């Protein structure tokens, strides 16, 4: 078997991990021949590997596979598109880019008969994309829900279980290479959102643009929210979910959730991710593993490189099913909203309020509200003095 010659884009946390795992793997008939980076800074390996000119890789006829792990979504889009247009297969970990451009990139794969693989883009080392694509190829799927972001989970674990400060935990997530270059993507929920968009394409065969999906993060979490959760014997986790709400409709959103001890994701801590896949005939299955970091992510990239040795590609079969569910935000959620100055009750129209509290360290309201209402008011809710979390809304009766 001829060795696959790889052109690598990016030599940061993930790129260096790929270099390491490839040199360890005895069965990967692949070698990195050139690495394109942004700057000319000193590197840990021979300088002759590096270039800052993408064309050195894109126009090299020897290169059979491009692996793209850079932290710039706009540049990533240009590189991946150019590669596919030239018929060069690509492995990418760039969920910010993929979530915005998947429909076009799927068309390009078909048009140029070329593959784009991206299991590392969602949940680091957990093979969630390939499983959804291959194994769950039926319409029994009811829900894919879980912790999809390692950094925010790391922060919440350190704050909840180790009484560390939020800022110290965030700095540590950055130092360990879990966080995005702009960590607001992690803590505001956008990284989870991008992964959810990609997952939904492979779970249900439907693409929903990220702008249409309600996303709320953990950046405004306060001691009083943590105290509230502790008093109730639950943990707060940043949860992303795509859920069939009827035969014909599904919903999706990202939001902190109060998670009770019986749930699989209750025990998913630190940078680990956990994904619950629920189906009509098999109840629940659970996938667990490291969701961020150099070697865990690189192991997923290695798996895609190996898959390319066998010409593997995604078929996107579910996109061609006649009966695909439609996206809706017309569902009711039970939420907790804590606030101080912002007059939340003037802004948000609850269907029904079940509890209200006013105190020195803040006020909170708990009630039922439509997801469409949250989506419409999302900008107002980004106030520094507001934090929101939901209670499990779907399949509660099955989880008792
Ligand atoms: N860290 C993680 O745990 C995971 C990350 N990912 C994704 O992988 C990608 C890389 O992440 P990570 O390794 O952490 O990021 P880093 O910031 O550690 O590294 C980014 C790399 O990209 C290079 N780069 C940036 N812009 C360009 C460009 N225009 N052309 C060529 N090279 C460029 C940088 O070059 P230079 O070295 O010169 O600065 C650097 O080598 C991101 O899309 C991220 O979302 C996915 C899963 C997990
Ligand atoms: N920043 C991301 C990295 C992996 O996707 C995370 O924390 O999960």
Automatic annotation (TrEMBL):
The keyword NADP applies. GO terms for biological process: methionine biosynthetic process; threonine biosynthetic process. Signal peptide: none annotated. Residues 10-118 form the Aspartate/homoserine dehydrogenase NAD-binding domain. One of its GO terms (molecular function) is homoserine dehydrogenase activity. The keyword Oxidoreductase applies. Transmembrane segments: none annotated. Pathway: Amino-acid biosynthesis; L-threonine biosynthesis; L-threonine from L-aspartate: step 3/5; Amino-acid biosynthesis; L-methionine biosynthesis via de novo pathway; L-homoserine from L-aspartate: step 3/3. Its EC number is 1.1.1.3. It catalyses: L-homoserine + NADP(+) = L-aspartate 4-semialdehyde + NADPH + H(+). Keywords: Amino-acid biosynthesis, Methionine biosynthesis, NADP, Oxidoreductase, Threonine biosynthesis. SUPFAM superfamilies: Glyceraldehyde-3-phosphate dehydrogenase-like, C-terminal domain (SSF55347), NAD(P)-binding Rossmann-fold domains (SSF51735). It is an enzyme of class 1 (oxidoreductase). InterPro entries: Asp/hSer_DH_NAD-bd (IPR005106), HDH_cat (IPR001342), HDH_CS (IPR019811), NAD(P)-bd_dom_sf (IPR036291). PANTHER family: HOMOSERINE DEHYDROGENASE (PTHR43331). Belongs to the homoserine dehydrogenase family. NCBIfam families: PRK06349.1. This is Homoserine dehydrogenase.
């Amino acid at each position: 078997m001829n060795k696959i010659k790889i052109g690598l884009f990016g030599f940061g946390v993930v790129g260096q991990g790929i270099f390491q795992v490839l040199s360890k793997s005895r069965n990967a008939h692949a070698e990195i021949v050139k690495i394109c980076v942004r700057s000319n800074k000193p590197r840990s390996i021979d300088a002759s590997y590096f270039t800052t000119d993408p064309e050195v890789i894109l126009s090299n006829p020897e290169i059979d596979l491009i692996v793209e792990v850079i932290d710039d979504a706009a540049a990533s889009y240009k590189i991946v598109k150019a590669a596919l247009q030239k018929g060069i297969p690509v492995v990418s970990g760039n969920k910010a880019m993929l979530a915005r451009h998947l429909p076009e990139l799927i068309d390009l794969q078909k048009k140029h008969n070329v593959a784009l693989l991206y299991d590392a883009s969602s949940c680091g080392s957990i093979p969630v994309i390939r499983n959804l694509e291959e194994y769950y190829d039926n319409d029994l799927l009811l829900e894919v829900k879980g912790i999809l972001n390692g950094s925010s989970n790391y922060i919440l674990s350190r704050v909840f279980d180790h009484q560390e400060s939020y800022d110290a935990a965030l700095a540590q997530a950055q130092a360990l290479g879990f966080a995005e270059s702009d960590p607001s993507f992690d803590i505001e929920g956008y990284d989870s959102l991008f992964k959810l968009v990609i997952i939904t394409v492979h779970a249900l065969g439907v693409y929903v643009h990220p702008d249409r999906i309600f996303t709320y993060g953990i950046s405004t979490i306060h001691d009083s929210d943590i105290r509230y959760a502790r008093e109730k014997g639950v943990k707060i986790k940043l949860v992303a979910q795509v859920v069939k709400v009827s035969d014909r409709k599904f919903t999706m959103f990202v939001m902190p959730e109060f998670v009770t001890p019986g749930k699989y994701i209750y025990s998913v801590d630190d940078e680990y991710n956990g994904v619950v896949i629920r189906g009509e005939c098999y109840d629940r299955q659970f996938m667990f593993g490291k969701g961020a970091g150099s070697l865990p992510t690189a192991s997923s990239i290695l798996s895609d490189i190996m898959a390319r040795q066998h010409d593997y590609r995604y078929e996107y079969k579910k996109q061609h099913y006649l009966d695909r569910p439609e996206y809706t935000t017309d569902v009711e959620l039970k939420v907790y909203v804590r606030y101080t100055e912002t007059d939340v009750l003037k802004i948000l129209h609850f269907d029904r309020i079940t509890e209200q509290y006013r105190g020195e360290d803040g006020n909170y309201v708990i009630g039922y509200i439509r997801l469409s209402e949250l989506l419409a008011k999302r900008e107002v809710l980004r106030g520094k003095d507001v934090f929101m979390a939901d209670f499990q809304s779907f399949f509660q009766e099955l989880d008792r």
